[in-house]
Amino acid sequence: MAVDYVLKFPCEVRKNVPEAKLVALVGYMSLAEFAIGEIRKSDPSAPMETILTKYQVQVAQARPDGTTTQVPMAIGQLVAQAQQLAPFRGYCQQCPANIADRPFGCIAKINYPIKREAEEWLLSRLPAEVKDPNFALLFRFLSDLKIDGTAVDAMRPRLFELKAPVVRHWGNQYQVTSSQIIHMLAFGGEIGPKQAALYTKLLGLETVLSDPHPPSANIEQFKTLMCAVVMSGRLNAGIGVET
C-alpha cells in the first residue's frame, strides 16, 4: 500500500499514452524494479532469467465494479508490460514536471509504513512564529475545512510507525498534529493548482526544490510530494492523489 500521486502536466508522453494506462505501466515498472532489488539483496547470485520467470508479485487490478483485487504476476510479465514505455523515456529528462528525477517522474508514491522522522519533518516546515502571516492563514484553513487528521489516525495501527501523531506547539494556545498535515496533503482528493500555490505558502515550500536530499528515504518521498505541490502551482497542473 502507498499514497500514489500524479502531477498531471500535459506532455508528449501523454499525447501518446492515455493517463490511466501511463499510471498503470509506470506502476508495473516501479514494482518490477523494487522486486528485483529486493531479490538481489537476498540472493545476489540469482540469474536474471530466474528472477523474471520464477518470482511473482501481487499486483492490484481494478474490477468492473470499482473494487480491486490482488493478482499474481511474474516479474517478467511486469517488465514486458513496462517495455511499452521504452520509446518515451527520453521525453522526461528535461520535463519541468519530473519531480522524482527519473523517467516518468511526474508519477510517484509515498510507501507505508510512514516513519516518525517523516512526520517530524513535515511539522518542521510550518511557520516558526505566531506573528508569521502564514501562521493565521494555516490555522484558519485547517479549521474552515475541518482538517482534524481523524482519517489518518484511523490508519495508524497498521500503516504508521507511531500510534499517535507528532504534535507541534506554539505556546499553550496553538498546536498542529502531523496527522492534520498528512490529511491536508493526501486525504483531500485532487490538489488543484491554486490550492497547491496556497500549500506552498502554508508549508514554507518556496525552497524545497533546492533543499538537500534528506537522509531518510521516507522523508525523501514526502519531499518529492512537496516538489510536486510547488510545480503544480507553477505549471498550472493538478495533482491526482490516491491513498
Question: What can you see in these coordinates?
Answer:
This protein is globular. The protein has helices at 12-16, 19-42, 48-54, 75-82, 116-124, 133-144, 150-153, 156-159, 178-186, 193-202, 217-235; strands at 2-7, 56-62, 68-74, 107-111, 167-170, 174-177, 239-242. The strands form three sheets. It has a three-stranded antiparallel beta sheet with strand order 4-1-7, with helices on one face. A two-stranded antiparallel ribbon has the order 2-3. Strands 5-6 form a two-stranded antiparallel ribbon. The protein is built from eleven helices and seven strands. The protein folds into two domains: 8-108, no CATH class; 116-242, no CATH class. Strand 2 (56-62) and strand 3 (68-74) form a beta hairpin. It is an alpha+beta fold.
Protein traits:
alpha+beta, two-stranded antiparallel sheet, 243 residues, 7 strands
Helix content: 40-55%
Overall SS class: alpha+beta
> What is the string of SSEs from the N terminus onward?
EHHHEEHEHHHHEEHHHE
Nearest-angstrom radius of gyration? 19 Å
Shape: globular
Tell me how many strands there are: 7
- The percentage of residues in β strands lies in 15-25%
What is the terminal separation in angstroms? 8 Å
Unreliable stretches (pLDDT < 50, length at least 5) are none
Number of helices: 11
Order of adjacent strands in the largest pleated sheet: 4-1-7
- The chain-level mean pLDDT equals 92
User: How many separate domains make up the residues?
Assistant: 2
The biggest sheet, with number of strands, parallel, antiparallel or mixed sense and barrel status, is: 3 strands, antiparallel
